[in-house]
Design goal:
Distance between the termini: 45 Å
Strand order of the largest sheet: 4-11-10-9-8-7-6-5
Bound molecules: ligand FNR
Structural class: alpha/beta
Mean pLDDT: 94
Number of helices: 16
Strand content: 5-15%
Shape: globular
Number of strands: 12
Order of helices and strands: HHHEEEEHHEHEHEHHHHHEHEHEHEHE
């Protein structure tokens, strides 16, 4: 019922805001420093012009395509997000189930709050990828790799844009800790969001996919655990060790895309981490055509940050990406209504994508090409 009025991702965001404590909503919704990078990434999608062709038979359309060598129902991947059980007590399991039902891949984060074996077990035939942050403690990272391989994660996604945490000003101002602390302010907020608090207080305490326990701010956690000395040597090491598909997420230049492709990775995610790391980093969509040119067929390119509509998926395909990832959109769904909310978020992308394909005169995802969309002048490389 709550979802009856959710027709767009923006609608889900509005419901999410009403259902979750402000500091939790802000953790999802916010970005780093002045949040310029996040807005620019979104603006780039909004400024794209679509070029329809008419008099084409679009009575049947096929939205499916190959991503990382296997079929997916839509060119959409659910991005890794940390602490997902903080957004809603069903957390990663709800997201994994909704993705599995929709036939699209889900990436579990190293900072997930459900252990990686349980996430795998809840949808054993689904496409699941595991996102890796390299720890200062390399033995712990190796153990994690072994667990991910044993649990049969299809791909490993190494995130490389987080040597330290970006400064998320909303979190700093809200005094957000993981798990959220009981302070006079949060206690006062309980009356406003009783369902969220009931669920969080009566279900298992937040556990981490990989860490035993933690209590502090996100920046403290990253500073303590993440290894800022990671280089291409580590990527070579990973390539030798991990026999499945290997993806590098957080590439933000043509030169780095070329360098990473030369190391034999299967895919690159052009991403500025939702604008949550370096503010004013390049806008992924503006880099996309040039990176695709530079890398050619050596590896697949995915893109994220600012994807909010089905038409955006089409734009990503037209400019050369094999798929787009989304983070906040499915988290808004999760905060709004748990698993059903995630399902609705995916449904919205699907409906909008198929409608846009028809209006553009394309009958299958594989037909979408550079003729169908262009960046307008300010965003042209
Ligand atoms: C993230 N992101 C992220 N990325 C990653 O590699 N590991 C992680 O643990 C997280 N955690 C995380 C938490 C939250 C709350 C958000 C919103 C994002 C980044 C994520 O994978 C993706 O790059 C962005 O979310 C994409 O931008 P949009 O779709 O949110 O605009």
């Amino acid at each position: 019922r709550r979802l009856a009025r959710a027709h767009t991702i923006a609608d889900l965001r509005t419901i999410a805001r009403r259902r979750t404590p402000g500091s939790v909503f802000d953790y999802v919704d916010g970005a780093a420093e002045q949040e310029i990078g996040m807005h620019r990434a979104r603006n780039a999608f909004e400024s794209v012009e679509l070029h329809p062709r008419v008099l084409r038979d679009v009575s049947r359309v096929d939205a499916s395509t190959d991503v990382l060598g296997a079929r997916t129902a839509l060119p959409l991947v659910l991005a890794p997000t940390g602490f997902t059980r903080m957004m809603h007590h069903e957390g990663e399991i709800a997201v994994a189930r909704a993705a599995a039902r929709a036939g699209i891949p889900y990436v579990l984060s190293t900072m997930g709050t459900t252990d990686l074996e349980s996430v795998r077990a809840c949808a054993p035939t689904a496409r699941q990828w595991f996102q890796l942050y390299l720890w200062k403690n390399r033995e712990a990272s190796e153990a994690l790799l072994e667990r991910a391989a044993k649990a049969r994660y299809e791909a490993l996604v190494l995130t490389v844009d987080t040597p330290v945490s970006g400064a998320r000003m909303r979190d700093i101002r809200n005094g957000l800790t993981i798990p959220p602390a009981l302070t006079p302010r949060t206690l006062a907020g309980m009356a406003m969001r009783p369902a969220w608090w009931m669920n969080i207080l009566t279900t298992e305490p937040l556990r981490f996919a990989t860490l035993s326990s933690f209590d502090g701010t996100v920046a403290e956690l990253v500073g303590e655990m993440f290894d800022p000395s990671v280089t291409t040597e580590d990527l070579r090491w990973l390539r030798e060790r991990w026999t499945g598909k290997l993806v590098v997420k957080g590439v933000q230049s043509i030169e780095d895309a070329r360098m990473v492709a030369d190391l034999g990775v299967d895919a690159i995610v052009l991403s500025n981490h939702g604008g949550r790391q370096l503010d004013r980093a390049p806008t992924p969509l503006e880099l996309l055509p040039r990176v695709v040119d530079a890398v050619g067929h050596d590896c697949e390119i995915l893109i994220d940050t600012g994807v909010r509509t089905g038409a955006d998926l089409l734009v990503a395909r037209a400019l050369g990406a094999s798929a787009a990832m989304v983070g906040r959109p499915y988290l808004y769904g999760l905060m709004a209504a748990g698993e059903q909310g995630v399902e609705r978020a995916i449904e919205i992308f699907d409906t909008e994508y198929v409608r846009t394909m028809r209006l553009l005169g394309v009958a299958s995802t594989d037909e979408i090409c550079a003729q169908h969309a262009s960046l307008r002048s300010a965003h042209r490389p």
